[in-house]
Amino acid sequence: MRRKLVAGNWKMNLHWNEAMSLVSDLVKNEKDWNCDVLICPPSPYVRHTFEFLKNAKSAISVGAQDCASSTDGAFTGEISAGMLSSIGSSFVLVGHSERREYQGERGETLTKKLQHSIGAGIQPIFCCGEKLDERQSNNHFDVVQTQLEEALFAMSNEEISKCTIAYEPVWAIGTGETASPEQAQEMHSFIRDQVATKYGDDVASRIRILYGGSVNAGNAKELFGQQDIDGGLVGGASLKIDSFLQIIQSA
Predict the structure, then answer these.
(1) Would the N or C end of the chain have less CB density within 10 A of its end CB?
(2) Interatomic CA distance for residues 145 and 138, integer angstroms
(3) Where along the chain do its domains lie?
């Protein structure tokens, strides 16, 4: 039985006091939730967040929003997976649509990030999803299949078992638009079938596939109730304690 995961991606939001206040509020409201909970704050906050959660004996995990495609070297501004692991990050997002769009990330670059993350003991969350024109032209399955094949499917069976997948239709990220539960389930089922074809039914049945794209307190329960949706990668709604708690409690 796959345990659901609710992950908050804070992106480049919240100044220090706001971020720590939100972490504190989460811990104060922490209960015996029926899912795993992860927060991915801006990188400068990762260590402090980890220490706060550890001291509070919290079950909430902390992750990073990206990592370098190299282990070390003369790469000004980059942060390696090993560095992130050493400051308490246990997850890292790889291939988020904003990184693909603004930094041109794809293919071999993402494969290296995945492999370096796993090598550092961090679980990567591999993001994939189509743009609006690709959905409207009925190419969304081909687009997602290509994204899987050019990066994630370079992993071995052992490596893929340490990955999580997040399906994020780009047209629904930060727009207020959300894929219907039926649309989301259809794509999640397709992704699981692709994993099964490549790695076998056992691996496919165990891998978690999250939905991301304007997840909120009003739609989370129905989305999370779909057979192949194993939680959510939550953006804006994870920045407000009330909405994030409602999403967590929907899992």
Answers:
(1) N
(2) 13
(3) 5-250
Q: Please say whether the beta carbons of 116 and 85 come within 8 A.
A: no
Residues 67-92: tens digit of each pLDDT:
999 999 999 999 999 999 999 999 99
Cα-trace Rg, the chain: 17
d(CA 250, CA 35): 9
Beta-ladder partners of 9:
40
Q: Sort 178 into a burial class: Cβ within 10 Å, 0-12 / 13-18 / 19+.
A: buried
Q: What angle do CA 54, 57, 58 make, to 5 degrees?
A: 85
96 has catalytic annotation: yes
Looking at residue 2, the DSSP 8-state letter turns out to be P
**Residue that is written with structure tokens 């490596």 in the block:** 159
Active-site residue, from 105, 116, 168, 188:
168
Measured from the Cβ of residue 116, the count of other Cβ atoms closer than 10 Å reads 22
Angle made by CA atoms 153, 154, 157, in degrees to the nearest 5: 75
**Helix, coil or strand: residue 4:** coil
Q: How far apart are CA 212 and CA 216, in angstroms?
A: 10
Known active-site residue 51: no
Does position 213 have pLDDT exceeding 90, yes or no?
no
What is the distance between the terminal CA atoms of the chain, rounded to a whole angstrom?
Answer: 14
Residue 37 pLDDT class (50, 70, 90 cuts): very high
Cβ–Cβ < 8 Å for 193, 228: no
Tell me, what amino acid is at 41? P
Annotated catalytic residue, options 96, 116, 140, 188? 96
Residue 85 CB neighbours (<10 A): 18
